[in-house]
## 1
Amino acid sequence: MIFDLRSDLYSHIQLLPLRWFDNRATGDLMTRVIEDVNSVERVLIDGIEQGCRRNICRCSSLWE
């Protein structure tokens, strides 16, 4: 999923007109792309982990 997100983002950036890049520093653009994708990845991982914990707690409370 993260690979697809990065691929889609790269494809989108490739389609932008060159004027769009004129007022943007390359380092800023790269940092933004990398950090945003990493943030989405952390949310997905943390969300799945929290969901699993919550379900385990619910199941364990049913057996008590």
## 2
Amino acid sequence: MRLLLDQGLPRSTVRHLDAAGVESAHVGEKGLATASDAKIIDFARQGGWAFGLLSSVSVYLLMLDETIVPSWHGENCSSMALS
């Protein structure tokens, strides 16, 4: 799995995930720190990334898209598989 982390998550999380064998990147590392949600979602889709985020607003926006399947949802964190 490739996991793209949203701006609400610390960039240091990438280091920990990579150490655990999970390929990951932060939107800030990909030049998307100020990008719109739509641009980040498009980037994730094109690159085959799952999307990790904290924002409940972003979760709501993603859930409106029927091609996105929630793969994990916790109290403060969600991950979406983008098809």
